[in-house]
């Protein structure tokens, strides 16, 4: 699974590209915070993207001179449509569903009370005082409920949809295709 950008891009380390391929390299679902965290890499083509991943674990830690995987990703700093842009290499997607909930809160309420007292000569005098009380109330608020079920058992498919939206903001959705 990957996303192809069908546009002319200039990269610092790969030069002129007529297309590029973006794929998720790793991901982590943070259930506590409701976040899908992933690292993303861009490659000059599907072949480089496929060759960037080791087949065997031992290939990761071998001597670099004999390493079978070698394609380096495209540098995040690019020139697209004559402007400098940077594609995200670390991106988080929120896994929240907005819900309306009733919430209690405390408030202070001040009231003026009239009472009778006596003056120095023993006459009844009407006086006032302020009484402050703490009152518990409820209000309806919108909260974001952590909802990891949004990925519907397909963490890659869900994240690629979100990644496509993010890349669409940079390169235009019309320039992106699934591959």
Brief account:
The chain is of the alpha+beta class and 179 residues long. 15% of the residues lie in helices and 51% in strands. The mean pLDDT is 91.
Please provide a written account of the structure.
This protein is an alpha+beta fold. It has 2 domains: 125 residues, no CATH class; 40 residues, no CATH class. 15% of the residues lie in helices and 51% in strands. The strands form 3 sheets. A 5-stranded antiparallel sheet has the order 8-5-4-1-11. It has a 4-stranded antiparallel sheet with strand order 3-2-6-7, with no helix packed on it. Strand 6 and strand 7 form a beta hairpin. The protein starts with a strand and ends with a strand.
């Amino acid at each position: 699974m990957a996303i192809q950008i069908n546009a002319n891009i200039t990269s610092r380390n790969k030069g002129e590209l007529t297309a590029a391929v973006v794929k998720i390299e790793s991901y982590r679902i943070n259930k506590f915070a409701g976040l899908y965290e992933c690292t993303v890499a861009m490659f000059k083509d599907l072949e480089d993207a496929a060759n960037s991943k080791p087949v065997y674990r031992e290939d990761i830690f071998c001597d670099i001179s004999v390493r079978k995987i070698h394609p380096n990703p495209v540098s995040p700093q690019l020139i697209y449509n004559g402007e400098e842009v940077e594609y995200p290499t670390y991106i988080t997607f929120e896994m929240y569903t907005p819900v309306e909930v009733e919430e209690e809160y405390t408030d202070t309420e001040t009231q003026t009370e009239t009472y009778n007292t006596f003056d120095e000569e023993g006459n009844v005098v009407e006086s006032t005082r302020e009484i402050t009380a703490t009152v518990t109330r409820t209000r309806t608020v919108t909260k974001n409920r952590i909802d990891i079920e949004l990925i519907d058992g397909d963490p890659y498919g869900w994240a690629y949809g979100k990644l496509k939206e993010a890349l669409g903001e940079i390169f235009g959705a019309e320039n992106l295709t699934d591959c």
